[in-house]
């Protein structure tokens, strides 16, 4: 499912406007978050993928999420022609996807269960699946937060989530999910709700 060309033009405008963005501070975190974040992998990423408030014009409603897969940015739409822009890692090559979804569920430090297609590609993950998945924590591939994307009322199996590979932010590396730095995933989680519309371009 493809979105209209107007959104692509909007993203091009927003990408240029991001040069004049306002860098935003990290959100406050709980004690559990602080403990896990201290143990999570660290990485320096290019400053363009930090969290900024930028000028952004779109016909999507305030409170929506727009993912620009090509340029590796996620935008949370704010009032007054503004958006919060986060750097993300997106799907590589044929594993990328586009379309519309809604946030159908949300979890903090979620358990990770390797999906069936991943088990077929990487059989060494089978013991993790047999054990009921990997508990939430700093080494978990889903990181600090997960937003479960639904289409037509059903789980699409795609997620917006944190990552235990922050060095991959700004790249096309995932199996289709949208990865964020753990602190950015916490920030976005605090702003969205179940039912939030998501557009992936």
Automatic annotation (TrEMBL):
The active site is at residues 161, 177. The keyword Cell wall biogenesis/degradation applies. One of its GO terms (biological process) is peptidoglycan-protein cross-linking. Residues 63-201 form the L,D-TPase catalytic domain. Coiled coil: none annotated. InterPro entries: LD-transpeptidase, LD_TPept_cat_dom, Transpep_catalytic_dom. One of its GO terms (molecular function) is glycosyltransferase activity. GO terms for cellular component: extracellular region. It comes from the Bacteria. Transmembrane segments: none annotated. Keywords: Cell shape, Cell wall biogenesis/degradation, Glycosyltransferase, Hydrolase, Peptidoglycan synthesis, Transferase. Gene3D superfamilies: L,D-transpeptidase catalytic domain-like (2.40.440.10). Belongs to the YkuD family. This is L,D-transpeptidase family protein.
């Amino acid at each position: 499912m493809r979105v209209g060309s107007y959104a692509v033009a909007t993203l091009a405008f927003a990408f240029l406007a991001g040069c004049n963005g306002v860098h935003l501070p990290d959100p406050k975190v709980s004690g559990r978050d602080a403990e896990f974040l201290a143990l999570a992998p660290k990485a320096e990423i290019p400053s363009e993928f930090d969290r900024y408030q930028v000028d952004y014009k779109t016909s999507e409603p305030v409170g929506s999420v727009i993912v620009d897969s090509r340029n590796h940015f996620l935008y949370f739409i704010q009032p007054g022609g503004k958006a919060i822009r986060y750097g993300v890692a997106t799907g590589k090559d044929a594993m990328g996807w586009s379309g519309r979804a809604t946030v159908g569920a949300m979890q903090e430090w979620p358990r990770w269960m390797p999906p069936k297609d991943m088990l077929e590609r990487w059989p060494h993950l089978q013991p993790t699946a047999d054990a009921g998945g990997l508990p939430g924590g700093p080494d978990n591939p889903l990181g600090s937060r997960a937003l479960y994307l639904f289409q037509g009322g059903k789980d699409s199996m795609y997620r917006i989530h944190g990552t235990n590979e922050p060095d991959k932010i700004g790249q096309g590396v995932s199996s289709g999910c949208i990865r964020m730095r753990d602190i950015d995933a916490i920030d976005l989680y605090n702003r969205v709700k179940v039912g939030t519309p998501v557009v992936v371009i």
